[in-house]
Design brief:
CATH topology: Lipocalin
Number of strands: 10
Strand order of the largest sheet: 1-2-3-4-5-6-7-8-9-10
Order of helices and strands: HEEEEEEEEEE
C-alpha cells in the first residue's frame, strides 16, 4: 500500500463512539443512531477491517467492511456486508482533508477534526429524480 494512503487511513484506527440521526422525511420521522465503530489493520497492515455495531432506532445494525487502497486508480475501496444480508461497494477519495465515499445510491462528505479525535459528516441518498438529498448526519468520537 502507498505510504501516504496508509497514513491517511491510520487516522481511522481505533474504537469510536458513534451518534447520528437519519433525517425526517415526508414519509418517516427522524431516527437516532447510536453505537460503536472499530477500525483495525489486518493482513499485515494491507487493509482495514471496519466493524460497526449501532442501534438505528430500535434495530441493531451490524456491518463489516474491508477498506483498502487501489494504487492504480488512486482511490480507496470499501466493500461492506451487513446483518440484513446486504453488501455493497464504494469508492473513497481524500481531497484537501475532505473524505468523499461514493456508492450506487449513497454518498458521504466529511472529515476529521484537527485533533483527529472526531470524524463527522453527512450521508446523502440518491433520489428517483437523480438528485442527492441529505440523509444522515453522523459523528464518531474516538475513545
Amino acid at each position: 500500500m502507498d505510504q501516504i494512503a496508509k497514513q491517511h487511513l491510520n487516522h481511522f484506527i481505533g474504537t469510536w463512539d458513534t451518534e447520528g440521526i437519519i433525517l425526517e422525511t415526508n414519509n418517516a420521522p427522524a431516527v437516532k443512531i447510536k453505537g460503536t465503530d472499530t477500525y483495525c489493520w489486518i493482513l499485515d497492515n494491507s487493509f482495514i477491517l471496519h466493524q460497526a455495531n449501532v442501534m438505528i432506532g430500535t434495530s441493531n445494525s451490524l456491518t463489516h467492511e474491508i477498506i483498502g487502497y487501489d494504487v492504480v486508480r488512486q482511490h480507496y475501496s470499501m466493500q461492506y456486508y451487513n446483518n440484513q444480508g446486504q453488501s455493497g461497494f464504494m469508492n473513497a477519495i481524500l481531497d484537501n482533508h475532505l473524505w468523499t465515499f461514493t456508492g450506487t445510491n449513497l454518498k458521504f462528505n466529511g472529515g476529521f477534526s484537527k485533533e483527529n479525535n472526531e470524524f463527522s459528516g453527512i450521508w446523502k441518498q440518491l433520489t428517483d429524480h437523480n438528485s442527492w438529498n441529505d440523509f444522515i448526519h453522523i459523528k464518531l468520537t474516538k475513545r
